[in-house]
Amino acid sequence: MEMQWWCAAQDVPWEWSWQPFPGVWLFILLLAFGYRRLLRRAAAAGGAPVSGGRVATFMAGLVSLWLALDWPIGVLGAGYLASAHSIQFLLIALIAPPLLLWGTPPEALGALRGDSVVAKTVRFVTHPLAAIVVFNIIVGTTHVPAVSDTLMATQLGSFVIDTAWLTGGLIFWWPVIGTVPERPMFHELLKIVYMTGQAICMTPLFLYLTYSSHPVYSRYELAPPVHGFAALDDQRVAGLIMKVVGGFILMGILTVLFFRWARQRGTAAGSAPARGRAAGAGRGARAQGARAGRARAAGRAPGVMHSGPGASAPGRDNGLNASVPAPSRRPRTPSLPLSAPSAPPVPRSSAPTPGAVAGRRRCRRSAARRGRAETSRC
Hints:
13 helices
């Protein structure tokens, strides 16, 4: 058996003997080298140091790719078992891309915020609507029996299928995990709708593979059997793997998004009473300031009690007595107790009464006897 650089269909019986695929190794090494360049770019941008968790996540994505492309899964999926082909698809399109995107530091993608052709292209294809359409076009096209049988017969064709799955997976996961470009309107609730829509889009392919009455891929139907595994049974297992395992992957992300959305809602609800209290305190302060302004306009210093005209309360000085003079106040007239209304007073006559005239005469005679000349007192 001659050495191949990429996994492709082989017309020889399956053997559990290891085969090297240098093209797969070179592809993984190139991705690792590119990631190292991104880390250097992030450090040059002056961002925070990349955490070990991000690096480990990216490396997990590389391991997922290596497992899917190298022996034995790569060889089995290329020309022996449709079920292995489904495992390849899940690893390349649904598992590796989110790990690679999460492990990439946002500072390394700053160039995508510019106006270059690459930046505009990335912003267009990673828009949620465009991303889900592009991904499903790639998935549907590569699973058409005529296209799949033709491409997997050669190493270059298998390479095209694998790289198309990886590219489509990166495009699909970018709106959910990618941080550049920023899309604040695409919040967690819309991401849940986005992921639910993808789960629905995968249903026709599952139904096509699982409930078909005959093998739909001639490549797997005519391949040398692997331990007596019938082609139709293998195809049905492939459909179940794609639906069940793929559904678990999507549901796991959906669960994370739901709890993130619920936590954000809880935080917003908890901050609402605090904002209400702050607004109430602000209104109270404004009302108090308005009352103080009215008091100053009326000539009375707020907070100062007057015990008399021009007198201030002893022992208290709020700093306003020196600038605002205490106004003079008339003493209050004590209020009379409430009683029944009395009759109006009778007006007096201006003419003197006889008694008054007699009294004045007696006063004058007495003053004369005493020798007083002035009788004006009388």
